[in-house]
Amino acid sequence: MIPVSSSSVQLPTQKTSADTPWQQLFSESLLTPEQLVQRLALPETLLTEIKQANELFQLRVPEPYLDRIKKGDINDPLLKQVLPLGLEAVQTPGYVTDPLQEKDSNPIPGLVHKYKSRVLLITAGACAINCRYCFRRHFEYQGNAISSERLEQISSYLMQHPEINEVILSGGDPLATSDYRLQKIVSKLESTPHIKRLRIHTRLPVVIPQRVTEQLVSLLKGSRLKTVWVLHINHPQEIDDQVTRVSRNLKDNGMLVLNQSVILRGINDNMTILAALSEALSEADILPYYLHTFDPVTGAAHFNVSDQEAIKLWQALQAELPGFLLPKLVREIPGKPSKTLL
User: Please, are residues 239 and 246 in contact by the beta-carbon 8 Å criterion?
Assistant: First the structure.
């Protein structure tokens, strides 16, 4: 057992009020294993493997998300999404560092073009929370950073491809950058006549709701581009009053708010939980969109649920929910022209 001395561990400031700057909450999300163990009253015997896994993929959990994790519960579904485990060091056949083969669809650093009518921009390399199952946990973010020069290159690429009508901001997390920088990116996209939609794939409104500032909402509301938000919520426990207020604010300002989840072993591989998630999303004015099967990324095989199990879960869910609350069950297969419906 490795002792944890309270005098030797500096915990991040525990602030969750709506007026806490999101930048402060973001910067304090980088935790040490000792901080996580003490903050959540976890068994000290976990420290050794947490430290080992932390070397593979750094621990990040912001305070608003920590507040939703039950202290002392090693089986808490939110904790399991962020807890580094020794299993991450196990090499599993078929699990690779680039499971979606995005390097093959990366014509310009910072831009991924997999599907005909839409492209994805690696808007930021950082996240406020490092989910242990992340399919981009090994992604080369530094080499794909979007500088002003690269933004011009991306703009030229878009002009040369009139079939592209939608740009997806992703990362990392696209909201892990300033409103000022996002405004520059949006303005550049608006200058391309055939771009109609802006899609934002983000977890920050869930893990740090304060990130959705009035300035950001005003920027997107005033854009000629139709804005679609795709949040990433895997369990109903992730939806609290702050998340609900943010999603309703976005909807009230004319933006579509969707959710995509991934089926995760021991977290939501249960029809009752998935049904409760869809109902909780509905209460928060978020529409269930995709239910992803697991991407085989190195270090995360312990989260995998087979496609056969996933199909059975979805069929049970279909009998439980109205059609408009039933997410599409999909797998992303490299080289295919779209997501594959299961």
Answer: no
